[in-house]
């Protein structure tokens, strides 16, 4: 859900509004002279960053600008970055720079509660987990294939507690990528009021940075299928002075325009 920051909504109303319109996240947009400011909310509160919210905002900004190739300087979470969108009507391809990705490897003792809550036997984990952050840390967990990924049924209460103990946004579980960089993923973030996300661009950017060290320069990650809301997120990387530089995004559609302040 995308709305103008100029709307006279309280913080509580901003948290509630995405659920009212059937969305998991809301992004509030304020165009400025130097940059477009973005603020992100879920039912649990404000977030410093939101990848698919950024993609949605770029699509709406491009729609309003009525130009086939839109570029903007964006600001959120204390950083300024570039984004672009191409398309027309109600369908746009939007991409942005999520910023540097911080990566670390947790101990097995730290990983075990998260893995167990997700439904993965820690003894059968196929590769070590990673902690990755582009604003808030999340755990990246690899499983062998899409069938195992699709069969996961996390204990959300246990997962929320395990993530809270480690200060994690959530857990991003992904299938082993094919040689050409195709994978599937599921993002579980009950601590911010989103048991499962239909798309998560920032976590996919984190995965791209992690897999850049394993020879992947481009990824296409399918998400949302278990929720019957399929999406595909694309991420590319190239070497940078502080590690891989990532560009991430996907296709956004604008199904309808509503006034968030309307009583209807």
Q: Briefly note the structural class of the backbone.
A: alpha+beta
Roughly what is the average pLDDT, rounded to an integer?
93
In the CATH hierarchy, the architecture of the largest domain is: Roll
- Uncertain regions: pLDDT < 50 for 5+ in a row? none
Rg (C-alpha, Å):
18 Å
Main beta sheet strand tally, sense and closure: 16 strands, mixed
Choose one word for the global shape. globular
Number of domains: 2
How far is it from the N-terminal to the C-terminal residue, by CA? Answer: 16 Å
* Superfamily (CATH H level) name of the largest domain: Diaminopimelate Epimerase, Chain A, domain 1
Give the topology string: H per helix, E per strand: EHEEEHEEEEHEEHHEEEHEEE
- Proportion of strand residues: 35-45%
Number of helices: 6
CATH class of the largest domain: Alpha Beta
Structure summary, number of beta strands: 16
What is the third-level CATH name, the topology of the largest domain? Diaminopimelate Epimerase, Chain A, domain 1
Helicity level, as a percent range? 10-25%
Task: Sum this structure up briefly.
Helix content is 24%, strand content 37%.
Provide structural commentary.
The chain has helices spanning 11-20, 51-65, 108-118, 146-150, 156-166, 201-212, and strands at 2-4, 26-31, 36-42, 45-47, 69-76, 79-88, 91-96, 102-104, 130-133, 137-143, 171-175, 182-189, 194-197, 218-223, 231-238, 245-253. The mean pLDDT is 93. The protein contains six helices and 16 strands. The protein has two domains: 2-96, Diaminopimelate Epimerase, Chain A, domain 1 (Roll); 102-249, Diaminopimelate Epimerase, Chain A, domain 1. By secondary structure, the chain is α+β, with helices and mostly antiparallel strands. It has a 16-stranded mixed β-sheet that branches. Belongs to the PhzF family.
């Amino acid at each position: 859900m995308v709305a103008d920051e100029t709307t006279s909504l309280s913080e509580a109303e901003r948290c509630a509004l995405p659920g009212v319109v059937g969305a998991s996240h809301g992004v509030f947009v304020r165009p400025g002279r130097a940059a477009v400011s973005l603020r992100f909310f879920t039912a649990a509160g404000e977030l410093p960053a939101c990848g698919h919210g950024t993609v949605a905002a770029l699509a709406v900004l491009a729609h309003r600008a009525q130009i086939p190739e839109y570029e903007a300087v964006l600001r959120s979470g204390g950083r300024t970055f570039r984004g672009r969108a191409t398309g027309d009507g109600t369908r746009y391809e939007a991409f942005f720079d999520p910023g540097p990705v911080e990566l670390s490897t947790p101990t097995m003792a730290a990983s075990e509660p998260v893995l167990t809550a997700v439904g993965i036997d820690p003894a059968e984990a196929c590769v070590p987990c990673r902690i990755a952050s582009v604003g808030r840390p999340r755990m990246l967990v690899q499983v062998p294939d899409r069938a195992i990924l699709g069969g996961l049924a996390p204990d959300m209460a246990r997962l929320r507690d395990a993530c809270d103990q480690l200060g994690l946004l959530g857990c991003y579980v992904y299938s082993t990528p094919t040689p050409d960089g195709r994978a599937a993923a599921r993002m579980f973030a009950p601590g911010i009021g989103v048991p499962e996300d239909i798309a998560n661009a920032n976590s996919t950017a984190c995965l791209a940075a992690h897999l850049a060290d394993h020879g992947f320069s481009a990824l296409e990650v399918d998400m949302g299928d278990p929720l019957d809301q399929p999406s595909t997120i694309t991420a590319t990387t190239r070497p940078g002075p502080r590690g891989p530089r990532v560009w991430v995004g996907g296709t956004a559609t604008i199904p309808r325009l509503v006034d968030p302040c309307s009583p209807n």
